[in-house]
Structure of WD repeat-containing protein 25:
Amino acid sequence: MSSLVAYEDSESEDDDHDRTEEGFTASLQTGSFKQNQDVKMCHSPKITPCPHSFTLDPDSSVLEYHENASERSISSLHPHSQPQSWDGKYCSDRTAPKQHFRDTAAPLSLPVTPRIISPMQTLPHMSQSFSDGLNSAKRHHTVQPGVRPYIPKRQRLGPSVEITDPKHPGVQASGNQTRESQILSEVSARVKPYLAHKAGAAGVPRRLLTRLGGHQGPVNTVQWCPVPQLSHLLMSASMDKTFKVWDGAESGRCLRVYTCHSGAVRDACWTPCGRRLLTGSFDNTAVITDVETGQQLVKLDNQFKVMCAVLHPSDPHVFLCGGYSSMVKAWDSRSCKVEKVYKAGVQQTLDILFLRGGVDFISSSDCVSRDSADRTLIAWDYQTTARLSNQIYQERFTCPSLALHPLEESFVAQTNGDYMAAFSSQRPFRMNKRRRFEGHKVEGYAVQCEFSLDGSILASGSSTGSAHFYDYHNAHMLHTLRAHSQPCLCVAQHPVLPATAATCDWAGEIKVWQ
């Protein structure tokens, strides 16, 4: 009589390894196993003996496991024989205590298919040389000559991120150092003294603090991290298909280079937590990336070149994408599905701005007729996708960028008429014709505008390479900073440090001013 016996595997291995199983048979005799052939198993050279025993259930011929057994004896009962007794006691109930059989039955030889046996299931006959180092085999694998080591799938499909070596800023370190160089763990020494005090009145920067280089194409936008403790981090997005994170407030060192896009990165922004980045690219995708690890958390195909990507102010899991399409799409990053679609008879969307609370938003397009720009700015109801108004701006200029005032119910639009216009953010979104910010040049470039944290200063780049700072309430120019020799596309004012701003230009250069 023969029966198959398989030993359970008590440990699960993360990485699959090839194992060769040959000729492993055992003879169940009064308390001993006999091994006819040697066991050939990869990565499991030894197994530690353990004081455990196995017994055979008399009713079902099932091999059972016992701990701390002083004796090890296994026998088999003939299927037609009567239930045996242990120590003179008759037992026919399976729930009775399992003890050792008396040596009354004939020996049974069973072919056994071995698996990796945990130390808690080690058989008593196995030698010490086979048992030593079972646990170490799981973590330490010897790579034989000519054999390529196994790489886990998670590591093979890991983040496409380059890390700058702190000792050599110009040299990119390997991706394995992601965990060693934590960029979200410490507060900058320059920012820390200002965290305990309430932010005062915004100031205008006057002198150059740091020059940042490394992008091989125009830098479309720069943005400081919105979290005060992490506000030393500066993000930049470029036409060279990369976006980077810098230590902009102190050392000026590039901390991360992200290469998850195959096209120019047209727009980028931080999430409110400061640990993720939302980017839109000309490769038709919008990507949410983990700042620390560089891992792509979400990647969505819009089926058009993305010009702008904006997070919902009340729900950071929802964001809008616009670009070379007549549609604006609302995505949910949790389900990776399009939640809403806003359709307008335009060729492309240049910028999107959520108004207070995220109930309404404004989209800017390139649709200009001969006499008016009746669809240049369109107001939308976010929930119903209905157009609220397309008669907001009646002049014949496109608006490449929009900015919301942080405190007042108003927003401004950068126009190709070389001025910024002010509007009410409440319906019917009337334009303030007495407040116009002039003195800079746009000339078709995607020049951005931005408010200071207290809303008192409005900053704008210029096609002449200058950075301009305006008093928002009287529209007077406060200062003109000769920042770049190429068109200055963005001016980002620091949320914590007073009179500090970052600028970027068409040549790929970034500068920090104070």
Summary: Residues 134-139 form the longest helix (6 residues). The first strand starts at residue 5 and ends at 6. Residues 1-141, 159-180 have pLDDT under 50 and may be disordered. Residues 23 and 306 are 62 Å apart (CA to CA).
